Structures are given as structure tokens and as C-alpha cells.
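User: Here's a structure from my thesis project, written as C-alpha cells. My advisor, Dr. K., wants to see whether a designed sequence matches the one we expressed. Can you design one independently, without my sequence as a hint?
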């Protein structure tokens, strides 16, 4: 950890918090697993189109990271490689309300296409900035504070996001909410996310450790990736867990559609689902962040995967339970989104563990390799959309439950202990 004056370190941490919180609030208004899927359906999109939205969100964010990881590898200063692509990505978010304003009523197919393109280019540019962002964050927040600092960042963002969810509910409850209310909400989310690159640009970045020349040749870079996969059992274990949990998460975009299409839950309830989701994220930050500092990140990973087993189970139980009282089904889906809010963040548990096992000079290599390997998950939402169209929502939820259960079993078989020095040496 570079030697920073305490005052400068606190300033940098405050700016990291500002970035993280702004992004969380902005996403609460945009609703990647709530509002955006609802918009696609209201525009006439099929379940496959909703699945394409999820595939774009995951694939466009994960796949470019191996290339950018090599490009920024061994650079002592990375801030500009964070700020520029993130500024572009926030501009791309502005295309979503523009698409609704121009085409929602006159050419809904064009609106769907433009929204999917906006999500694509947002995630690509966000991916380009995210790899060096982890290095910038690791410089600003020392290891012994990461769980607490990022946990509180998540908690504050979630607390404010609850208010955002309530605003969404009120706005969507207005008469003739589509498309004007949805345009207003997505515009608000895009503007709040625009704070992020401004905050990051104000960070005073210390020079980091390097391990060779900047932007290593592919002939050096690719063999190093193979060495990490072959030699670091902890990295391989974490990758397998991310694959299983990512596949289980393919049902995430379909819970809101199941509630509104199958069970008749009003569209205005989407706002409460958002509030429940961000409340879950807040509880995750307040409870699991400090717990991870005390008990270790492996325990947090196990808890989060256990919660993934609960969400599809509740969805499967909702139809028979709905006959008990009109509010039972909405209440169960509020619980579903509460638990989803706890599980959809990878910062606590997964990424903190990855930063823990990665040598300082290779943080960006580990991050980019892990995220690019996660790119295989882009087929999951498409498969989920096909599965719903060909069979039923219930089949999708059963498959998600089985995958989450497999992930839980693997998480309980902890990774083999291995010294980081062996990995650095390529043993």
C-alpha cells in the first residue's frame, strides 16, 4: 500500500465513496433487473428480448476486460484510464430516456433497439474503466479497511436507494405513466450516475507497484494468464463459483415479469421491489461488510450463495401462497428482491477475496482475467429467455435453484491454501 498522508487517504476514500454511492443511487432509478425489463415488455419486447438485455449487460461488461487488463497492466498511474471511459459510459445512459422520448409511442421496435444499444455501449465503456477502477480503489482503501469502507458505501447507497425506489413507485403510479414517467426516471438515473467520473477525477492517485514493462506483449501476457489458472487453486475455485452463481442469476430479470404477468401484481409495485432490493444491498453492506473483515471473505461468499437458493424457492411458492391473501404474493416478491439486493453485489465476498489473493503488482491481471472468464455467462440470460418462452417461468426457477445449490456445495469445499509467492513465481 503506497504511503499516503492520512488526510489525503481520507480524502481519496471519501471520493471513492461518492463514486460508489452515486452509481448505486443512479442504478436504483434505472433498475437493470426491474425497470428496464419492464420497459422492454411495455414496448412489446418478447421474453427473448428481455433475455438479450441481460446478456448484453453481462457479456458487454465482462468480455472486454482481458484486453483492457493487458493495456493497463504494470502502469503505476491508472486514473485517466478510469475517468475517460466511465464518462463516455454515463453519456450512453442518456440514450435510454432519449429513445423513450422519441420512439416509445411512434416506433416501439426502434426504442427497444436503441435501448439495447445504449445498454451495450454503456457496459462496454464501464468495463474498460472498471479494471483500473479496482486498482485505484485498492490504492485509496487499505486492505484492513476495505470490508468496512465498501460495506458502508453499499449501505449508504442502499439507504438512499430506498428513497429512490419510493420515488419510482410514486412516479409509476401516475395516470398514463408510460412512457413519460419511465423517461423521467431513466433520465434521473443517468444524471446521478454522471457524478461518478467527476468524483474519481478528483482522486490524488499514488504510484502503484509494477512488475515489468507497461502493456506487456501478448506473448508474455497470455502465458501468465495460463499460469494463474493452472497454479492458483483459489482463483480456479472462485471462478467456478462465479460461473455457478452467474448461471443461477439468469432468473433475476424474470422475477418482476413473473410477478406482473403471471400473478397480476400492479406495475407500480416495481418501485417497492426496487426499494426492497436496495434495502437488501444496505443490509448486506452493514452486516456482511464488517463480518467479512472479522471472519473472512469465504464466509461472506457462502452466505450470499445460500441466499441465492432462497429467491427461486420463494418464486415457486408464490402462486399457491397467493390464495391465502391478496398481499401474500406481493409480499413474497418483496422478500425475493430484498434477498436479490443482498446477492447481486460482487464487491463484498467475491471481489474482496480476489483482491486478497492477487499479488499487488498483478491486481488488474487477476481482475480482468476473472471478469473475462465470467463472460461465458452472457449466454445465461438468453437461455433463460428461451426457456421461459419454450416452457415456463417455473422451469427457469427450478433450474436456477439447482445451479445455486451446486454453488453452495462447492463453496463449502473451501479452496486449497496456497502461498501467493508461489503464484507470482509461476510454480
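Assistant: Designed independently from the structure alone:
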Amino acid at each position: 500500500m503506497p504511503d499516503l498522508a492520512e488526510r489525503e487517504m481520507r480524502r481519496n476514500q471519501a471520493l471513492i465513496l461518492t463514486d460508489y454511492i452515486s452509481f448505486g443511487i443512479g442504478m436504483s432509478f434505472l433498475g437493470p433487473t426491474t425497470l428496464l425489463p419492464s420497459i422492454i415488455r411495455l414496448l412489446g419486447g418478447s421474453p427473448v428480448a428481455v433475455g438479450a438485455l441481460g446478456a448484453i449487460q453481462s457479456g458487454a461488461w465482462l468480455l472486454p476486460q482481458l484486453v483492457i487488463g493487458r493495456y493497463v497492466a504494470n502502469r503505476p498511474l491508472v486514473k485517466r484510464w478510469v475517468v475517460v471511459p466511465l464518462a463516455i459510459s454515463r453519456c450512453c445512459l442518456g440514450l435510454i430516456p432519449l429513445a423513450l422520448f422519441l420512439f416509445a409511442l411512434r416506433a416501439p421496435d426502434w426504442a427497444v433497439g436503441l435501448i439495447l444499444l445504449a445498454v451495450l455501449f454503456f457496459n462496454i465503456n464501464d468495463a474498460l474503466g472498471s479494471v483500473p477502477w479496482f486498482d485505484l480503489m485498492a490504492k485509496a482503501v487499505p486492505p484492513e479497511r476495505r470490508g468496512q469502507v465498501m460495506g458502508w458505501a453499499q449501505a449508504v447507497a442502499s439507504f438512499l436507494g430506498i428513497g429512490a425506489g419510493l420515488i419510482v413507485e410514486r412516479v409509476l403510479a401516475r395516470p398514463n405513466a408510460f412512457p413519460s414517467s419511465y423517461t423521467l426516471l431513466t433520465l434521473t438515473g443517468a444524471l446521478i450516475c454522471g457524478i461518478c467520473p467527476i468524483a474519481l477525477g478528483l482522486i490524488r492517485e499514488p504510484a502503484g507497484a509494477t512488475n515489468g514493462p507497461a502493456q506487456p506483449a501478448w506473448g508474455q501476457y497470455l502465458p501468465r494468464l495460463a499460469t494463474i489458472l493452472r497454479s492458483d487453486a483459489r482463483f480456479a475455485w472462485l471462478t467456478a463459483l462465479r460461473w455457478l452463481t452467474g448461471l443461477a442469476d439468469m432468473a433475476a430479470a424474470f422475477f418482476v415479469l413473473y410477478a406482473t404477468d403471471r400473478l397480476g401484481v400492479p406495475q407500480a409495485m416495481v418501485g417497492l421491489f426496487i426499494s426492497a432490493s436496495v434495502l437488501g444491498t444496505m443490509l448486506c453492506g452493514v452486516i456482511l461488510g464488517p463480518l467479512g473483515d472479522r471472519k473472512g471473505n469465504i464466509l461472506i461468499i457462502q452466505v450470499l450463495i445460500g441466499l441465492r437458493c432462497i429467491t427461486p424457492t420463494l418464486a415457486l411458492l408464490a402462486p399457491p401462497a397467493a390464495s391465502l391473501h391478496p398481499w401474500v404474493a406481493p409480499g413474497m416478491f418483496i422478500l425475493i428482491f430484498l434477498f436479490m439486493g443482498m446477492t447481486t453485489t460482487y464487491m463484498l465476498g467475491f471481489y474482496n477475496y480476489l483482491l486478497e489473493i492477487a499479488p499487488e503488482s498483478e491486481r488488474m491481471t487477476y481482475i480482468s482475467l476473472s471478469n473475462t472468464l465470467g463472460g461465458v455467462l452472457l449466454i445465461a440470460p438468453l437461455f433463460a429467455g428461451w426457456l421461459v418462452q419454450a416452457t415456463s417461468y417455473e422451469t427457469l426457477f427450478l433450474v436456477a435453484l439447482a445451479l445455486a445449490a451446486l454453488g453452495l456445495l462447492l463453496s463449502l469445499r473451501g479452496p486449497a491454501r496456497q502461498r501467493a509467492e508461489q503464484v507470482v513465481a509461476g510454480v
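When you compare it with your expressed construct, this may help: The two ends are 25 Å apart (CA to CA).
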